[in-house]
Specification:
The chain is an alpha/beta fold. The chain is 33% helix and 18% strand. The relative contact order is 0.15.
């Protein structure tokens, strides 16, 4: 594990709206003045779910990327990479999702949006996140739905596959890379990744190793020991996604 970090040392943002406005102007330039009110950018429904299930306490966002819907005055923004396909991450601390350098039971909630599908061993990741959560802590997941993203032609990732994958990560990485190239890249379904070499796709975590419907993530979560509080097959303000809210017993 990397050098252990402390919550007290993290520079939390002072204002939610100011942080949001600054980032949208940086992303969209002068168009940001009106785009900041667009429903699919502002994400009011998704933000309301975070407020409902994690109204208090300090949280961690894993893999925030270039955009966040986290309550940034009380959320640590983390990532494994400083940039994603040329886009700078908003993170202030960097570490892999399966090796979080904070003590046991540090967080009231963990937020993650479109991250678990990029990880070869998501079950081990969810075990690590449980370690970091306080009793009763929540995980709020937004993940791509198989039928509403470029993975539409690929087979779903089942729990039995994830369990057996732990013993053959290298072989499974190569198999899934080949599947990704055959069913996504060659068909031009993810043009933002097309200029990456296969090696870069693996190194930067660009591949979707996992292809899910909401019931698949529910089965995985319950297998690990989480209580599933809510699932939403279709997120109203992010059309490609489903949501699952998990609780540590």
């Amino acid at each position: 594990m990397a050098k252990e970090l402390t919550i007290d040392d993290y520079p939390f943002e002072e204002g939610e709206w100011n942080f949001y406005s600054q980032n949208i102007r940086k992303k969209y330039g002068w168009k940001g003045w009106y785009k900041q009110f667009w429903h699919h950018i502002r994400r009011p429904w998704s933000r309301s779910q975070i407020s409902e299930f994690a109204p208090l306490g300090v949280g961690l966002e894993v893999g925030c990327g270039e955009w966040t819907i986290a309550p940034v005055r009380r959320t640590i923004l983390s990532d494994a990479f400083e940039e994603h396909v040329g886009n700078q991450s908003l993170a202030k601390v960097y570490f892999p999702a399966d090796n979080i350098p904070y003590p046991n039971e540090s967080f009231n909630f963990i937020l993650s949006e479109h991250v678990l599908e990029h990880l070869i061993d998501p079950s081990s990741v969810l075990v690590e996140w449980m370690r970091c959560l306080r009793s009763g802590g929540k995980i709020i997941l937004f993940l791509p739905d198989k039928d509403r993203i470029f993975d539409v032609q690929r087979p779903r990732t089942r729990l039995t596959e994830l369990i057996s994958r732990r013993d053959n990560k290298e072989g499974e990485t190569q198999r899934l890379l080949n599947e990704w190239i055959d069913y996504v890249i060659k068909d031009g379904l993810a043009p933002h990744y097309i200029d990456l070499s296969p090696e870069e796709m693996v190194q930067t975590g660009s591949i979707h190793y996992n292809v899910w419907k909401v019931e698949d993530i529910q089965e995985l979560a319950e297998h690990i020991g989480y209580t599933v509080l809510k699932t939403e097959p279709s997120v109203p303000d992010r059309s490609d996604s489903f949501m699952a809210v998990l609780s540590k017993p």
